[in-house]
Amino acid sequence: MNQEFPQYLIDTWKKKKLIVVFIILISVVVLSAIIGAIGPEELYNRKLDFGISPTKTRYSQNVTIKSLTKNHQLLVVQSKFRNRQEYGLMVELPFETRVFGNNISPYNRSSKFEEIVSTVHKRVVKCEPKKTCTSHTIAYMPYLKYRNYRVESIHEFNELGYLFDHIYFDFYYVNKAMVSFEIVFRYIFVMTVLAVMFILVRVTRGIAFKNYTITQKWITYLLVLLLLKNNPIFSAQLIDHSLFVRVLDFFFTAAFRIALLAFFLIITDSYRYSKEERNTRRYYLPRIIPLLLISLFILIIYFNLITNELNDPQIEEERDIAGFRSMHTFIFYLFITYICWIFISTIQTFVAVFKKNGQLNNLTEENVSYKKRFLFFFTLELILLIFGNIEFFGNFLPKVRTSSYEFIMMFSVDTIIIIFYGFSFLPSDTENIFRNIKKRKNQTKKDQIISDAYNPDVSQNEKLNIDSDIDEGIDTDLNDHHNILESDLEEDLNEKSELQKNNDSDSSIINSQSDLSDKKNNSDKKQIITYQDSHLDDSQNENLINSGSENN
Fold this sequence. Notes:
The protein is α+β, with helices and mostly antiparallel strands and 552 residues long. The protein is built from twelve helices and eight strands. The chain has helices spanning 15-38, 176-203, 214-229, 244-270, 275-278, 281-311, 317-320, 324-353, 370-394, 404-424, 430-453, 460-551, and strands spanning 43-51, 58-65, 75-83, 89-102, 114-127, 136-141, 148-156, 164-174.
């Protein structure tokens, strides 16, 4: 079948079926939200509170965290002061942080720690009257190489210690229950995408990829990227001593998001351009270049952050990375440009689809519902933009999620909608294709067996086995077609019986009519004979009379 799909499966759906599809979609999204809401919290938080003497000019505190495992994934330590004054504060204070680690059992009395890093930063502290001040990170370990950590924090007050009466330390690390929750659902999403890809490959096996429509090609790309985004090797980070899996996870997510944005823009514009106009650089380059710039700047910022995190556990991107805000602003403007472009393109396509004649310039098939297709595509596009891309591009930096709700919504909505896209834009004769898959498989097997039977290199015993396989293949084909033939024969017999009844009734009518005609003919003949007999009698009487008169 070397032809482009003339019609999509969605074009054959009635209004009731479309309503059922959207009800299923909304139900799955709501179910995902409920699962995320009742899921475990991602971060486990421990708090420590220490008093501060007003006469101190230097404050030092050592805090030890023990018995961490790979399941905890990361460690974040933050500190904040409490203002003792009746007025607000904004002061700049230097902070020194030293981080140590070891793999000694927590029951071992040895206190040997290996120094990991030592850094000094200045932080601006803002405080409301009689309230806690802004927090700042004093240690951030993006992956856990050691079981035990000791964080030494030194604060230089410079004769400003009288301003504060307490210091608070917050320790954050990933909840083990959240790790199990994420692994289970990631693999559920991975297996779901693999199953859908297998079904779609089986359905479209007889069609060359070059003959796919532009929508089907992009859906194929998105399914592959969705599989990578769900990250089948996610659990490897539990045994990895580096950031490789984390960086790979971010790279797959970014690639999927950029491809999704390109998919929306290219497919929305494709309704207004012919196939020849779409197969040009002029069509693709203006739509791809802004997205490539967005992805390039995101990767630059991300790898810059990763590098700084490894070298400095006290790094804070908004304060310490030069050019961070300007690059973030540039990416924001690029994304706003994209939103404006796709909004204008959607309006133009809407006008083109819903104009009076209901046809488009590149419409080559008859009876194809572009209105239904466009509305379905636009609705799913809007859901993905709201739940996925806006959240990603608003928080594209390394960000610690606070609940399982954010995780489940970002992954489930993407998976569900891309799967709906995949099935909706299948060829319209999908049911017939499903029916013929088994038939094609049996025919291929039988052809292979027959070719082996005529192969001179095959031994006599193997040929005997081949003969039996041929018989089995024929029996299999007969069994496959038995139900169809039986139903066809029953229909033929019913039709023949009805025809026979009609013929019998017609023949009886004809026989009765022939009997009547025979009777009528016989009666006519009798009348004719009677008339002739009577006529003969009269003539004979006349002759007798004449002969009698002559004799007289």
